Amino acid sequence: MNNTIQIKNNLISRIKNSKDLNFLKALQTIFDSLEEYQLNDTQKKSIKKSRDEIKAGNYIENSTAVSEIKEWLKKK
Questions:
Q1: Are residues 60 and 27 part of one domain?
Q2: What value does the CA radius of gyration of the chain take, rounded to a whole number of Å?
Q3: Higher confidence at residue 63 or residue 1?
Q4: How many domains does the chain have?
Q5: Are the C-beta atoms of residues 73 and 65 closer than 8 Å to each other?
């Protein structure tokens, strides 16, 4: 049997047999969170563009950005 099918069947069986409400709620939260993060095409393109910029070296380290922002805020 295919490993994916085996895992699915195991999970289905465990869910069906569970009487643990906290466990079931935790699973529901996991499944709900997967639905919340479906990206549209615009978001996918934006992420790809950002990754391409990083590969090209067009970024600054977080610590540098924080330092620059702090300096900028001091001037305001």
A1: no
A2: 22
A3: 63
A4: 2
A5: no
- CA-CA distances (angstroms) from residue 28 to 6, 14, 19, 71? 21, 14, 14, 45
Give the contacts of 15 (CB within 8 A, at least 6 positions apart). 24, 27
Helix H, strand E, coil C: the string for the chain is: CCHHHHHHHHHHHHHHHCCCHHHHHHHHHHHHHHHHCCCCHHHHHHHHHHHHHHHCCCCCCHHHHHHHHHHHHHHC
Average pLDDT, the chain: 92
47 shares its domain with 29: no
pLDDT at 38: 78
Q: pLDDT tens digits for 30-65?
A: 988 876 677 889 999 999 999 999 999 999 999 999
> Which residue, among 17, 38, 15, has the nearest Cα to 27 in the 3D structure?
15
